Recover the amino acids of this structure.
């Protein structure tokens, strides 16, 4: 009978701790995604949070700075955000700014900031439209269908319908900074970012050429879920 | 009007796993090969992409990837004294259709059989005596040995990139692998998939009882892999949609991901889809095939002449093709004479459900089709059958392949079959139950066989295949024995309630069990008891080769695909190195 008790207890770890905190946070998330969406500018965050070191670049509402390759993180899942902080700290994801910040944070602080930004309303308005119609069609094709010729599956297979993300599993791409998505794809291609389970993103990114990277990143940047 | 086409060197009937591999090898060797596929062309993009591919109603319930049984069903009966009726809705087994064949929607469980399996009749007599077997069993040796096939198993596993852990490399037992396996020349091409939580529980319990748990060999890959054909595969994401679905991630080893693009790039190969082959044509001597006749998707009839015909369809369709073509003597169970349709066998599947308290979270939905943990301690002849009165066995495993909403709802006995009580039980147990699969061998028996139905015909006017099958007593006894052992493992896991469901007769065709239909074009050394020789060449028409699980004289304790891949490469070696240089009998009749 001891066996039965021992098994669930053996699973206790920091990630389970995060998971149990998330039980409180999760019910808010779907509501945040279906409610009328806050636009990036001039909106008030649902939960007033104490200022975090993240704010200077990612913004008080987690809106990011599109032109500076700084991603939106508002409403990204806590697991995803916490994992990125861990990975910056241990070098499996490479960025000089983020590595320094992440290393300086304690485990508790990483969980705190991850939960804080996860609980903010997802900013679903589009970023700049930068693509011509041919590029847009290519981006749409890769997002919805993939391409047998280069053996790439649809982005939305993992990143959710319209790239809206899959809670706990894959980050949203819809409305994300095009420059950020492009630089993320480049770092997967070059292998400087290697924190993807099963090398899933590295496998895909390596099949894309420069034009594909422009198309797919520009495509997701202009996806506007908020009007749907 | 029948159009007669230009002669080619080789016709492959059925472009699934076997057809793709054979066609690729022979086209690369310079032969003109035509592949005739009954179904449609399909690839990972666009046909297999989500969200459409994750449609449980369409693929699981309505069987969208299966042989169209409004046009081409099978008739079934348990006993020769009954009248067989057409199976209008596939349930017990699910023959696939379309480019890539049934492998497209397989689970990726990729085993080798053991040395003992290939010489089952001889080894059983040696170990247990001449009179051990039930008199009505028609167990026989394969005509090949494990050592013959080992290099071909290896080649097939490296084609697929199978993820696993060796238990025996050249006679040396490897910790963490299956110590019962026959020696392999090297480890699997990729390491095992991550272990499921239910597998970790099983591992601990099985070890505590002295058994030898090991990770299930999986062709849903644990990491990116480039195979010897230059095809790149991705790592599996554990989406829980393998069996009955195609993989959208290029992570499951299927013809489309491991070999078809190489084949299709070869100008020596021509693929024709939507082609329903009616028969293999013979000349007036009935000892030589001249090609095949087929009807295309718009109803035009063609005759395609060829020097060599390979029947590489799903097992039971291989049997039907020979019967429709008049190749080999049909089996007669009354006299025991004849060979085509003889030794039809299946797989004897049992289950054990272990129900836990609600603080044990299994998360069954996070799974691949082959990310289980199992033991072979009660498989094959890995335990002493003396005094047990049966041969064979089963692997026992926590093989959690999915937690899909329509089909996966384990509930304990006594639960109402519908209504509020049922719904409450489903909610209560969904995430707190571990299911074991007991994958049992199937003994061939005199009265189980396949022939042509005397009454029912397909959409093209050809007689349907008739299946006559019930479980041999041997297998019922085996299922009871192994299930009792598995229940002990469930108890050792600390489950609140453990329910064993050993397979019992009569066989029912309306409940899903497995699509491991074997036999009917059995291989062997004696033309009186086999349809093809040890190189899978027809004894009666030497320019016809038949390759499929229909070659198995009886079925072993594991999924059949790995062994079929090995047999395919084994036959290809014989074709390329001997037959095609000097066409004729590879073994004197």
């Amino acid at each position: 009978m001891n066996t039965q008790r021992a098994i669930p207890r053996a699973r206790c770890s920091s990630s389970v701790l995060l998971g149990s905190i998330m039980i409180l946070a999760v019910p808010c998330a779907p509501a945040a995604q279906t409610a009328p969406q806050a636009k990036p500018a001039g909106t008030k965050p649902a939960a007033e949070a104490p200022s975090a070191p993240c704010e200077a670049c990612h913004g008080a509402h987690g809106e990011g700075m599109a032109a500076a390759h700084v991603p939106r993180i508002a409403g990204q899942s806590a697991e995803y955000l916490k994992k990125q902080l861990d990975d910056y700290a241990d070098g499996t994801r490479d960025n000089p700014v983020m590595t320094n910040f992440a290393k300086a944070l304690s485990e508790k602080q990483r969980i705190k900031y991850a939960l804080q930004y996860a609980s903010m309303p997802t900013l679903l308005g589009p970023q700049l439209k930068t693509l011509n119609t041919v590029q847009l069609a290519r981006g749409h094709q890769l997002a919805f269908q993939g391409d047998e010729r280069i053996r790439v599956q649809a982005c939305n297979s993992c990143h959710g319908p319209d790239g809206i993300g899959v809670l706990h599993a894959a980050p949203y791409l819809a409305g994300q900074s095009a420059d950020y998505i492009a630089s993320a794809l480049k770092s997967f291609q070059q292998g400087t970012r290697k924190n993807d389970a099963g090398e899933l993103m590295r496998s895909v990114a390596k099949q894309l050429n420069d034009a594909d990277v422009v198309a797919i990143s520009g495509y997701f940047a202009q996806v506007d879920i908020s009007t749907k | 009007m029948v159009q007669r086409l230009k002669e080619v060197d080789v016709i492959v009937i059925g472009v699934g796993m076997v057809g793709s591999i054979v066609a690729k090898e022979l086209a690369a060797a310079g032969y003109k090969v035509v592949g005739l596929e009954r179904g449609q062309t399909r690839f990972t993009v666009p046909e297999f992409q989500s969200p459409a591919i994750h449609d449980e109603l369409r693929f699981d319930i309505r069987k969208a990837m299966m042989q169209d049984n409004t046009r081409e069903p099978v008739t079934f009966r348990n006993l020769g004294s009954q009248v067989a009726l057409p199976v209008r809705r596939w349930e017990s087994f699910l023959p696939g259709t379309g480019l890539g064949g049934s492998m497209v929607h397989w689970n990726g469980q990729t085993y080798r059989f053991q040395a003992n399996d290939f010489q089952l009749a001889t080894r059983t007599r040696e170990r247990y005596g001449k009179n051990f077997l039930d008199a009505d069993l028609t167990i026989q040796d394969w005509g090949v040995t494990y050592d013959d096939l080992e290099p071909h198993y290896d080649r097939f596993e490296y084609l697929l990139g199978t993820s696993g852990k060796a238990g025996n490399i050249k006679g040396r037992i490897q910790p963490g692998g299956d110590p019962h396996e026959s020696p392999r020349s090297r480890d699997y091409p990729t390491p095992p998939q991550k272990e499921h939580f239910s597998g970790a529980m099983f591992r601990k319990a099985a070890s505590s009882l002295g058994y030898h748990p090991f990770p299930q060999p999986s062709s849903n890959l644990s990491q990116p892999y480039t195979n010897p054909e230059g095809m790149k595969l991705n790592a599996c994401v554990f989406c829980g949609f393998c069996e009955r679905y195609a993989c959208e991630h290029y992570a499951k080893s299927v013809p489309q991901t491991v070999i078809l693009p190489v084949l299709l790039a070869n100008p020596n190969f021509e693929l024709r889809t939507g082609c329903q082959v009616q028969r293999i044509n013979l000349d007036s001597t009935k000892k030589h095939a001249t090609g095949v006749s087929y009807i295309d998707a718009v109803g035009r009839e063609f005759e395609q002449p060829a020097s060599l015909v390979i029947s590489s369809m799903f097992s039971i369709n291989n049997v039907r093709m020979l019967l429709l073509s008049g190749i080999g003597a049909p089996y007669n169970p009354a006299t025991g004479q004849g060979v085509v349709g003889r030794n039809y066998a299946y797989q004897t599947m049992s289950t054990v459900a272990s129900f836990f308290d609600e603080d044990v979270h299994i998360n069954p939905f996070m799974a691949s089709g082959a990310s289980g943990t199992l033991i072979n301690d009660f498989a094959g002849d890995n335990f002493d059958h003396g005094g047990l009165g049966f041969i064979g066995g089963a692997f026992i495993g926590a093989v959690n392949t999915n937690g899909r909403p329509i089909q996966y709802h384990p509930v304990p006995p006594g639960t109402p079959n519908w209504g509020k009580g049922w719904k409450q039980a489903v909610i209560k147990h969904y995430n707190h139950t571990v299911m074991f699969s007991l994958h049992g061998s199937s003994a061939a028996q005199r009265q189980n066989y396949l022939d042509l139905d005397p009454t029912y015909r397909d959409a093209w006017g050809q007689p349907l295949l008739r299946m006559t099958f019930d479980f041999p007593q041997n297998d019922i006894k085996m299922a009871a024995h192994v299930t009792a052992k598995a229940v002990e493992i469930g108890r050792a896991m600390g489950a609140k309630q453990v329910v064993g469901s050993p397979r019992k007769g009569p066989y029912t065709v309306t409940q899903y069990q497995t699509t491991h239909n074997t036999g009917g074009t059995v291989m062997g050394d004696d033309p009186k008891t086999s349809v093809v020789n040890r190189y899978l060449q027809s004894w009666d028409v030497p320019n016809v080769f038949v390759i499929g699980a229909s070659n198995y004289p009886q079925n072993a304790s594991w999924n059949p695909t790995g062994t079929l891949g090995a047999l395919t490469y084994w036959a290809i070696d014989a074709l390329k190195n001997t037959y095609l240089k000097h066409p004729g009998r590879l073994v004197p009749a």
Chain B has a mean pLDDT of 97. The first strand of chain B starts at residue 2 and ends at 4. The interface with chain A takes residues 43-46, 49-51, 197, 200-201, 204-205, 208, 222-224, 232, 234-237, 248-250, 356-357, 359-361, 492-495 of chain B (CB under 8 Å). DSSP finds twelve helices and 22 strands in chain B.
